[in-house]
Amino acid sequence: MPAQRVAVADEEGSPDAILIRRTMSEIGPVADKVASYFYALLFVRRPDLRVLFPPAMDMQRDRLLKALLTAAEHLDNTPVLVDYLQNLGRGHRKYGTRAEDYPAVGECLIGSLSKYAAAVWDPETEAAWVRAYTTISQVMIDSAAADALRSPAWWHAEVVTHDLRTPDVAILTVRPDQPYPFLAGQYTSIETPWWPRVWRHYSFASAPRSDGLLTFHVKAVPAGWVSNALVHRARPGDVIRLGPPTGSMTVDHTTDSGLLCLGGGTGIAPIKALVEDVAEHGARRPVEVFYGARTDHDLYEIDTMLRLQQSHSWLSVRAIIDQQARLQLPEALRDYGPWNEYDAYLSGPPGMIRSGVDMLRGFGIPSSRIRHDAVEELLVVGN
Ligand SMILES: Cc1cc2nc3c(=O)[nH]c(=O)nc-3n(C[C@H](O)[C@H](O)[C@H](O)COP(=O)(O)OP(=O)(O)OC[C@H]3O[C@@H](n4cnc5c(N)ncnc54)[C@H](O)[C@@H]3O)c2cc1C
Ligand code: HEM
């Protein structure tokens, strides 16, 4: 689904949404304390649930509670929210979450909110939160149950090849133990054997292949747990775990509009998958790829992209090399436009996506035709 921004004025919406937003403004300044208290409460009441979570909880502290609060806040935006929650529920199967665990999380949420939003907390507010949590958790539970009928909770996958392309970027090919259906442009979660229960997202770098193998491009980030394990430790024969495929940065094959693709760093991985997908569908729609990196050296996949360009007359690949690609890219886009008839696809570091979206809007591409993934933000739902 294309990115959509949900704008809600403070006193608009259902009575429950208004009460929920009041709680949110109250806890805003002490969000960290609410998160710590929430997990402390959860693990004191349900110590058995601690093993589902990673040993270090810094990232998680933020994400579970943030998602819950944001989902509650946007309760009135049903279709967008339901889509997000269904994905989330499906994704929770790999953590070992069971339907019967949801009430405990809800009780601890309400316990934490009532403590830190005491000034505005009353029985009506509590009832609004109970209704919101029940709705949210039911969507997640139902979606996990439906998914269990057709898919495993996770896949094991054996590393088949490991190619260190630069000192910190590796291309890995893995063989899943069961068929793994996905669409070009999507991403998955990976857990390595060295950091159990620590999952990170990686994009598929190829469209689905007839041999069932999957490819990933991974850049080791300084002190990064999973990326360093995949780049510097993983070797053929190692077995990783994969979560389900997700993401909405996929090609709409019902139209033949052109594709404008901006890929920065390893963000070129899903862009390459999209190009392969267009090629396989045989449609001769224009695809314009701008591949950005800080130095020549970081354009580790330029040869592959140029080979694709040679084989397909509808494809153009342009490299943007600059420490300040943000300045060069707008100029290049201006030179090669107009883009108002194109669908846009962005993939790369969050800063690049944010500035890229603004830039593309400035070139007349409506938000509904700009696709990208940034799971951290529920406000840009569908990612
Ligand atoms: C939808 C999506 C798709 C993604 N696809 C890919 C992909 O195809 N290839 C790929 O390599 N990565 C991809 N990522 C990023 C990936 O999920 C991890 O965030 C990244 O590998 C770092 O994980 P880590 O466990 O190594 O680092 P962590 O242990 O999570 O982080 C360690 C430290 O590094 C910092 N850090 C995190 N990311 C970066 C970064 N990019 N640059 C500099 N510092 C950073 C953190 O803030 C932290 O301080 C994707 C992310 C998303 C949301
Ligand atoms: C409505 C309820 C819930 C919401 C909105 C929610 C939301 C989230 C979000 C957004 C994440 C971040 C990673 C991801 O996207 O998968 C997450 C991770 C996680 N959640 Fe939930 N969650 C809910 C209920 C539960 C329950 C009931 C459990 C089981 C005890 C649980 C266990 C976990 C675990 C183990 C992780 C992984 C931690 C990590 O990777 O750091 N969640 N949750």
TrEMBL record:
Main enzyme class: oxidoreductase
Residue ranges occupied by any FAD-binding FR-type domain in the UniProt entry: 152-252
Pfam families reported for this sequence: FAD_binding_6 (PF00970), Globin (PF00042), NAD_binding_1 (PF00175)
Requisite cofactors: heme b; FAD
InterPro entries per UniProt: Cbr1-like_FAD-bd_dom (IPR008333), FAD-bd_FR_type (IPR017927), Flavoprot_Pyr_Nucl_cyt_Rdtase (IPR001709), FNR_nucleotide-bd (IPR039261), Globin (IPR000971), Globin-like_sf (IPR009050), Globin/Proto (IPR012292), MRET (IPR050415)
This enzyme's EC code(s): 1.14.12.17
Gene3D superfamilies for this protein: Globins (1.10.490.10), Nucleotide-binding domain of ferredoxin-NADP reductase (FNR) module (3.40.50.80), Translation factors (2.40.30.10)
Gene Ontology molecular function terms on file: 2 iron, 2 sulfur cluster binding; heme binding; nitric oxide dioxygenase NAD(P)H activity; oxygen binding; oxygen carrier activity
Ranges of residues in domain Globin: 11-145
CDD domains to which the protein is assigned, alphabetical: Mb-like_oxidoreductase, O2ase_reductase_like
Keywords attached to this entry: 2Fe-2S, Heme, Iron, Iron-sulfur, Metal-binding, NAD, NADP, Oxygen transport, Transport
Catalytic activity: 2 nitric oxide + NADPH + 2 O2 = 2 nitrate + NADP(+) + H(+); 2 nitric oxide + NADH + 2 O2 = 2 nitrate + NAD(+) + H(+)
Organism domain of life: Bacteria
Entry keyword annotation includes NAD: yes
Family in the record: Belongs to the globin family.
Stated name of the protein: nitric oxide dioxygenase
Organism: Streptomyces roseochromogenus subsp. oscitans DS 12.976
Lineage of the organism: Bacteria, Bacillati, Actinomycetota, Actinomycetes, Kitasatosporales
